[in-house]
## 1
Amino acid sequence: MRFLPLVLLLACTSTASRKITCDTFSKQTSEADLVTQYGRDRVQTKTIELGEGQTQQGAVVDGIEFAWKDPAHTQLDFARLPNTMTTYDGIRIGTDLKTVEAINGRAFSLTGFMWDYSGTVTSWNHGLIDDKTRGRCRLLLRFDPGAIADEALRQRTLGDRDYNSASSDMQKLNPRVYEIKLLFY
């Protein structure tokens, strides 16, 4: 096997307590490995959304979406977690920015809102999350601010540029995680 066994974790824990980290899979995890580990009936072929209207064939196991870098599905590109699973220190879909800052031990950088890659963490700024993932994968989180009633605040946090999570605007919005991916390189 080219990834760490996960079958006992998935079989023995409740949906709410499943924790997936960079150590759960590796860049060499193939679709064949998933079939061997979980069985063909649990590995479903699915079209995976990549962003900006792009898709590719991938697989889903217990809600985790897998996409590969190659057509033979032997080099894992990413694993996208469903809202039933957590990653480092309990980060899950719905975790707010201030909590993620505390887990990271410092502010981080993220993109502005209202576009395809809205609220994407671009750097952990050498925080604790960097320490936990270094050399294995990159934890990618995306944040959603929800409805922003204050038009001036909305305008100040728009678009494809980096913002500091500690900025007064980001702190006021305190957006929540809407996507979790583990990127393998």
Note: The chain has two domains: 7-85, 93-178.
## 2
Amino acid sequence: MKQTVGDPRNVIAMLMAITLTALTSTMTGCASLGIFGDGEEARLSQGSNLPREGAMDRVRLERLFESQVEKVTGGPGGLRSMVDGYNIWLITDPLNDRMRLMVPIAQIDGVEPRFLNALLEANIHSTLDARYGVSEGTVYAVYLHPISTLDEADFTSAFQQTLNLARTLGTSFSSGKLQFGK
């Protein structure tokens, strides 16, 4: 069967490839550049892009993450914990002022094809600030944000939204109570 540019399978494949590229680039970049250790300190010592007074930073963000969970593994720039049977990662890139909360949910080959469209629709209608994404064959719930403009309330909300997306895969595909357009 010939596929055209407007074919929904091509659109889904393209969106999955874009999501894969975005997720992989940050994870790979952080690891390969050695940002997990002293990235923030290196940026601050260069005197560029100094954060505003009282802005969120990697250390404070990691403390917030630790306050949400019972046990943490990993180190600066890459923390992991288990919540309700889900792995949740906090990945930070202070040099680029970015953070990610990520929860691997399922292998893409184990997800029913009809759910792929539902994932994309959920990203518009029911996911609020967290989103579904696919990287290296895994479906994730993910939240991305600049570190410096994040506050404690937003982080707490992001943490819960990301876990809610994992919990509701295959049912409501929702990060919370609010839904748009449906």
Note: Residues 1-5, 20-26, 32-48 have pLDDT under 50 and may be disordered.
